[in-house]
Amino acid sequence: MDCKQRAALYSRLSRDDGIGESESNSISNQKQMLSRYAKEHSFSIVDHYVDDGWTGKSFERPDFMVADIEKGLIDVVIVKDLSRLGRNNAMVALYTEMIFPDNDVRFIAINDNIDSINGDNDIMPFKSVVNEFYAKDISKKISLSYQMRREKGIPTSWCTPYGYQLN
């Protein structure tokens, strides 16, 4: 490689893990991992894009780097694993098979050992499907948990509804 490739480091977490106003521990860990990887592989970091508290089912996120990709500012997108890119199989495929290649952007998912420079990754579509079903499964479990709490008369909100007193 003659010159350093410009890398976008992307971190996402669907829920804050409870450390207050600052970014979540998971995001901090992802940032450290991605920065270390970029440094070890001599990438020039354009920016670290972070969507903390945003679902992977939607690709309409405030810090998703697509505008910078379309401007030609990014050569490589690096994520911790494929699920950080997203949990919507159709959209993950759109980005990894069309948008990134059409913009000459290399895609790397570190923990999944995915690097588009190596050509087709046979396991990537299966991981993407599993990631999508994981999100659906968790959603069902959370809904069932809330339903059971309501049936037992246990509050499901952090605040008391208007007009009621905390007992």
Question: If you had to describe this structure to a student in words, what would you say it looks like?
Answer:
The chain has helices at residues 25-40, 66-70, 82-85, 89-102, 124-151; strands spanning 6-13, 44-52, 76-79, 106-109, 114-115. It has 167 residues and is of the alpha/beta class. A 5-stranded mixed sheet has the order 2-1-3-4-5, sandwiched between helices. The termini are far apart. Mean pLDDT is 82; it is low at 16-21.
What's the arrangement of secondary structure elements?
Layout lengths: L5 E8 L11 H16 L3 E9 L13 H5 L5 E4 L2 H4 L3 H14 L3 E4 L4 E2 L8 H28 L16
Parallel strand pairs: 1-2, 1-3, 3-4
Antiparallel strand pairs: 4-5
Task: Give structural attributes.
about 170 residues, about 40% helix, alpha/beta, single chain
